Amino acid sequence: MSTPTVNKQKIQIHLPPILSKIVSVYWSYRSFFSNGFLAWLIASLIWRVRSVIVAGKKQGSVRRLSLKDQLIKGSSAAGGGGVSDSSMKKKPAVGSEKPLPSLPPSSSQKVSTSESPLQQVDNVAATTGGKGKKKGDGPRADVDAVFFGRMARLIPILIPGVQSKEFWLLNAFSGFLILRTVLSLYVAQLDGEIVSALVRRQGRGFVIGIISWMAVAIPATYTNSMLTWFQNKLAILFRTRITNFLHDKYLENMTFYKVGNLDDRIKNADQIITQDVAQFSQKVSEIYSNLAKPILDTILYNIQLSNNVGFESVFASFIIVNYSAYILRVMTPPFGKYAAEEARLEGEFRFAHSRLIENAEEIALYAGHDVEKSILDRGYEGLIKHINRISRTRIWHTMLEDFLIKYFWGAMGMVMCAVPVFFEVPGTEAKVGDLGSRTQGFVTNRRLLLSSSDAVGRIMYSYKEVSELAGYTARVSELLDVFEDIEQGVFQKRLVSNANTDLLQQRGEFIESDIIEFKNVPIVSPNGDLLVSSLSFNVKKGMHLLIVGPNGSGKSSLFRILGGLWPMYGGIVAKPDPKNIFYIPQRPYLSLGTLRDQIIYPDTLQEMQAKGVTDVQLLELMKVVEISHIVEREGGFDAEKDWKDILAGGDKQRVAISRLFYHTPRYAILDECTSSVSMDIERIMYTHAQKLGISLLTVSHRPSLWQYHNWILQYDGQGGYVFTKLDAKRRLALQEEKNTLEQKLIEAPKLQKRLEDLKQLVQEHNIRMSSDALSTLGSNPSRLQPLSRPVKSRPRLPRGDFDEPGNGKPSTQPNL
């Protein structure tokens, strides 16, 4: 049975002669115009991306170069703490805080570079940010030049080079994306052939088409599965790269301490490294898949559509899509800023719970659960309000997206596909034919158009994902900025109102030496509080220094400067190699690992074996402080437990002392490290440490430790101190006499009160005796006659003072 043919009707349009001439010239150079348009489109896209990236890099460089100037301006605006003399003389703004001024570099001030933990640092003014930026706002998170600059900075971290695994995996990923696009083109053509065979009632062609359809399903499904695998694998590799990079930055030069104690910009670095980095890596891998293939699909599909329906229709669709995309972009809310704010609120809510766990005992003793619950509820309520606000915003935005992408673009696509049906377009593959040919062409073009529309839609939808990526990129970049600033000695910290800005512009010097010596070093806390104006002392081998003073006078602060934790604002600090100084705090740190790891920390098992130390020797060290029973009780040195919860407070301090004996440094800093052990164990600890030749620097209020030291550094709490030789015996005698006098002074008010009571009782007794005597004389007047001779009267004692008159024994229960 033959297939009926339908003649294709042509729609003729009569144009004026001048327009006909123009149209004729256009059709003569039509291929040139179409190819030029395609080249211009690709070149403009490449140039625009390049310009945005370059602008981002320039803006990032300007930020790095002008950081100090911006902070100085911010400090002047915030509290008058500038760098010039005039700004120094200005009265600071009302408030309890003011920012720290920047430290100008000085060629005459040298900094030791031989020790990475003791790099000299500058403190720079801390403000809330640029103009108009409110306190608590996060970094800018828009899809702009700054975002592309940040990505250009992070991409070398994610893909370090052409030899990296990520680079080759990305190339393989790109290959599968291209393969999927090619398969999509083939499926579109195959779809048209199947429908054409169906319309023409060609059974053989229909069966061949179905078989081809099923055959192409095998590579298509494999390609889709591999694309998913590549995307997840890239996300894991990207996260591994940037996490390792951040760990290196975070754990070098004590950055992990400085970022939380010397800088106010990052309060939840742990959340950024663990959660935001994971989200960032996942978004990057998704964005590449969601942008690379749609862009490739759009180019290839439109080239094929141009061949099928004409260049003019494609150009018109480009204009429509471009303007509708512009409208959608203008109407799109700042989802990047929303994502960054959501991450910040999540971090604060998580920090509130961590704070509750950390201070659970104190909160429980104060019965402060209601207050803490209100804090947690406020944090969660703020987070949920923000999430609900985002959800409400997405309603109308999703509605606008669906209208433009699905319906408006779909209607325009139908018009485009109908062009070859109603018009004969020269230079295209559309030929006049029967119903089957026109149906095949329409179905193929519509399939290409739908695929192209879907690709453009994915590009438009991805703008929202790019905005969210911008938020995570801003968070990760801010963390890197803080790490780099801290590495260069640039901090942003709020200061107390009475901070000495002149002093804070000075710089100190670290030198390596065999002794510990401070020369005219001011002790200044990170918030600018001056504890000691100028400290000078030295500790040589064989000296044992006792450091005493009231709380907050600067005892532990001295060790923080010595360890490189706090910046130094003047003077000279001489110290030996860090391996020859060992610090033991009041609460010893117990790491994750075996019992052996607790004794040798921070050494590893390999380092212990390289030193030639055995488990038997470790056991002997533990026997010195009488904790060897722990080895057998807990299952040997290889036992892995949560030692922080297993060991008691005294056992923890003994483990820390065993750790000191293992390392045997030249100097040991002991900060109340024997507060939970008995005096006998304390004596064993100190005497054994001195036998090992360790010079001790001890912070303690216990007089029992004086006998183990021969020098003393005493703070008065008012910024002054005394450094002198310590005569332990004489000082103990003076201390004992002082304690005796203090005890007597304490008891003096009680003795005085007892004396007053006794006086009052005696007076009352005398009055009663006089009254009794008068009563007796009144009843017997003869007693009033004078005696012939004077009789010496004996004073009577109060009744009850003695059991019997004259027996000389005090009564056990006096009745006064």
UniProtKB/TrEMBL annotation:
Subcellular location: Endomembrane system; Peroxisome
Keyword presence, NADP: no
Chief subcellular location: membrane
Keyword Cell inner membrane on entry: no
Domain ABC transporter residue range list: 516-761
Keywords: ATP-binding, Coiled coil, Hydrolase, Membrane, Nucleotide-binding, Peroxisome, Translocase, Transmembrane, Transmembrane helix, Transport
Membrane-crossing segments per the record: 37-56, 167-186, 206-230, 404-423
Chain residue ranges for the region called Disordered: 74-118, 772-816
Taxonomic superkingdom: Eukaryota
Coiled-coil annotated residue ranges, if any: 734-768
InterPro entries reported for this sequence: AAA+_ATPase, ABC1_TM_dom, ABC1_TM_sf, ABC_transporter-like_ATP-bd, ABC_transporter-like_CS, ABC_transporter_sub-D, P-loop_NTPase
Low complexity bias locations: 96-117
Polar residues bias locations: 772-785
BP-aspect Gene Ontology terms: fatty acid beta-oxidation; long-chain fatty acid import into peroxisome; peroxisome organization; very long-chain fatty acid catabolic process
Pfam family, one: ABC_membrane_2
An example Gene Ontology molecular-function term: long-chain fatty acid transmembrane transporter activity
Single GO cellular component term: endomembrane system
UniProt topology in membrane: Multi-pass membrane protein
Residue ranges constituting the ABC transmembrane type-1 domain according to the UniProt record: 176-405
Family classification: Belongs to the ABC transporter superfamily. ABCD family. Peroxisomal fatty acyl CoA transporter (TC 3.A.1.203) subfamily.
PANTHER family documented for this protein: ATP-BINDING CASSETTE, SUB-FAMILY D MEMBER, PEROXISOMAL LONG-CHAIN FATTY ACID IMPORT PROTEIN 1
Protein's name in the database: ABC transporter domain-containing protein
Species lineage: Eukaryota, Fungi, Fungi incertae sedis, Chytridiomycota, Chytridiomycota incertae sedis
